[in-house]
Amino acid sequence: MAVSPHRREGPDASAETAVRLADFVLRRPASVFPQTVLDQARYLLLDTIGIAIAAGPMEAGRIARDAATLLYNSSDPRHSARMLFDGRRASLAGAAYACATQIDNLDGHDGYSPTKGHIGVVVVPALAALAEQLPELNGPDALAALVVGYEVAGRAGIALHATVSDYHTSGAWNALGVAAMAARLRRLSDGQLREALGIAEYHGPRSQMMREIATPTMLHDGSGIGALTGLSAAVLAERGFTGAPAITVEAPDVAAHWQDLGSFWQALHQYVKPYPICRWAHAAIDATRGLVLSHHLTPADIDHVQVNSFHHAATLFRGMPDTTSKAQYSLRFAVATFILHGRIGLEHISGAGLEDAAVAEMLNRISVSEQERHSARFPAGRWADVVITTTDGRVLISGDVHARGGPEAPLTSREIEAKYLEFATPVLGRGRAMAIRDAILSLTDPDSRFSDLSALLYDPPVVSKILQRPAW
To answer: What is the pLDDT of residue 9?
Structure first.
């Protein structure tokens, strides 16, 4: 993010940030949000909902939804909501927690490179939960609230990374985006917004990301607890609980990260993942993809694959994974799967895909090394280069490749829609999946209602068999 060399720091800058933030979160109407931003928000919503649908039958999602009914329920209708694609009720915070945990455990959701993490995973479940209490919420207002979540969470994430030494999970900062959305939609005051952000930051899970990378589990990126924390913070602040200030918002040395709020739109710079795999592996997959397609390689043509990437990518799980969590955090497995199948789908990172003997054999032909020039460009970029040696002795070099899906090489709207249908259709059936797609894409219409979409979001799926997905 560009920072002015004449930026102000100190108490005045902090006060200006608080005023600018409150005006943006609480008082900026959807009508003045750039149309391009609201258009993009539709596609971020569509993409995240697709992942939520596909993740529903997975074990982590089932456990999270059951836990929400056991631990995070509410008898007050104003503070409860249905869980997406389940229908059971939990508290606002519990419903958002369940869906965010579900999405977090299928690593195909959006992210923002400067934050080294993810936002849609929490703001989409939060929007759905909050909208349960707002039957008249129109489409543009819903999209504007979603954008508020992206913009606040992204800046909080960048500020936190810039001021602490540990590499923390997304839940540590995306909770603030959820709190801001709740403040907007529940019409909190400036003071309540300030307290909510402080509570969300204080309770946000400062969990260790690299620990989860080393031993992948259902903890994933901490976003379930981030969603729970953000909505809990808003309700606490609404009832008079105090917790300000949020250091990532009000500390003098982070003021520069908030100066472009409302002028630079982080929502336009999210990446959409082509594969349900940790983003750190995507550049290697794309570099391999380029060589395989351009040279018409089959698995039998490949003798060895040398992947060079940045440090964090080189630390990803190296062996043949035996769980979906490990599969999503394995660069070698992802590259091998693409070589064997020409794509990476849910069926490859779960069930029988974890016992694919051909993929296991291909792993033995893949080496991964850190390359300093790629490490130097992280986190702004996710780079890799690949060298494939063929069985007939050719040496094929990809050159430096940046992961697709972000602003450098965005997916088209048709590709995002195709991805959504690939993930949603096997679970819901084509008719319901397409109805959800159409309802989401119509939300920019001033006469649209979010309730028209939500009517499609809560019934449990009746199509449970995961079908073979087409390439896209």
So the answer is: 52
